[in-house]
């Protein structure tokens, strides 16, 4: 695992940089110019005394900096979860393989553990670092040293629980992003309401355009942030489901493919 951490860190930083560049480029070239054009048309209609049709344009809803920040964080979180989900699915693919072959009716003795360990060591170096090979290796080494099947079961459970804790702790950044997105939305709400209150005197005089625009900033930022938060939480729970199933299925694999075949002969 230690060899993967630097690459994962570089991947996360790179994903953030790419998300900032791409989202800002879309805002500069499409969202803000179109939003400004729509608002200018509405302002011209209001100045001419025409009836202003308030269209719920996506460009207007997304135009502010808070929405841009939320979208950047959303794509960053999706990139992180995509990387972890891909790793989980790759590890899960090992569960369909016969890493160690124990035919029905055969027994695995403490003296046989070295032979089965060689089969695990024959896997590619990257695959040996996956959960299933590590759990099988721990089981075989514990069986060879203690000759106690109960100890082997506890070793497998300890490896799986440690992996579950590690996977859960690695989601801390995604949880932070899921918390930060609604917070940014509320910052936009406070900013919009503050601007609206600052222009309250104009509303008293009959000019409510500034107050309306500021309240639009407040509600649009909250709306976008909450929608994005729902998406992030859904994807995060799907990722957690993949990881939890991986850990549980690994324990089942070890029990059915190895532990139930273990036997200690009386000396």
Explain this structure.
There is one protein chain. With 267 residues, the chain is an all-alpha fold. It has one domain (66-261). 78% of the residues lie in helices and 0% in strands. The chain has 10 helices and no strands. The protein has helices at residues 4-47, 58-62, 65-93, 113-121, 125-128, 131-146, 149-169, 172-198, 200-204, 209-257. The longest helix is centred in the C-terminal third of the chain and has 49 residues, at 209-257. The model has no long low-confidence stretch (mean pLDDT 85).
What is the domain tally? 1
Task: Count up the helices.
Answer: 10
The helicity comes to over 70%
Cα shape: rod-shaped
Structural class: mainly alpha
Largest sheet: none
Q: In whole angstroms, how far apart are the ends?
A: 40 Å
Number of strands: 0
Spans of at least 5 consecutive residues with low confidence: none
Strand content: under 5%
What labels would you give this structure?
single chain, 267 residues
List the helices and strands and how they pair.
Layout: H1 4-47, H2 58-62, H3 65-93, H4 113-121, H5 125-128, H6 131-146, H7 149-169, H8 172-198, H9 200-204, H10 209-257
Helix pairs in contact: 1-3, 3-8, 3-10, 4-6, 6-7, 6-10, 7-10, 8-10
């Amino acid at each position: 695992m230690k060899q993967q951490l630097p690459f994962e860190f570089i991947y996360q930083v790179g994903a953030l940089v790419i998300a900032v560049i791409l989202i800002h480029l879309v805002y500069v070239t499409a969202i803000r110019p179109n939003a400004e054009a729509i608002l200018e048309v509405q302002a011209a209609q209001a100045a001419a005394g025409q009836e202003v049709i308030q269209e719920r344009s996506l460009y207007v809803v997304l135009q502010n900096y808070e929405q841009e920040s939320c979208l950047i964080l959303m794509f960053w979180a999706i990139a992180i979860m995509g990387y972890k989900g891909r790793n989980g699915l790759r590890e899960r693919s090992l569960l369909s393989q016969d890493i160690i072959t124990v035919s029905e009716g055969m027994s695995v003795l403490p003296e046989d553990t070295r032979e089965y360990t060689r089969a695990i060591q024959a896997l590619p170096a990257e695959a040996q670092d996956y959960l299933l090979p590590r759990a099988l290796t721990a089981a075989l080494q514990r069986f060879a040293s203690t000759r106690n099947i109960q100890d082997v079961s506890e070793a497998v459970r300890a490896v799986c629980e440690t992996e579950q804790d590690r996977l859960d702790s690695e989601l801390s950044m995604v949880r932070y992003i899921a918390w930060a997105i609604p917070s940014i939305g509320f910052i936009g709400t406070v900013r919009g309401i503050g601007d609206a209150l600052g222009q309250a005197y104009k509303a008293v005089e009959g000019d409510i355009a500034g107050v309306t625009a500021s309240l639009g900033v407040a509600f649009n930022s909250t709306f976008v942030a909450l929608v994005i938060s729902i998406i992030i939480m859904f994807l995060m729970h799907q990722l957690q489901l993949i990881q939890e199933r991986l850990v549980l299925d690994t324990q089942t694999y070890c029990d059915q493919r190895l532990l139930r075949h273990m036997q200690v002969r009386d000396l």
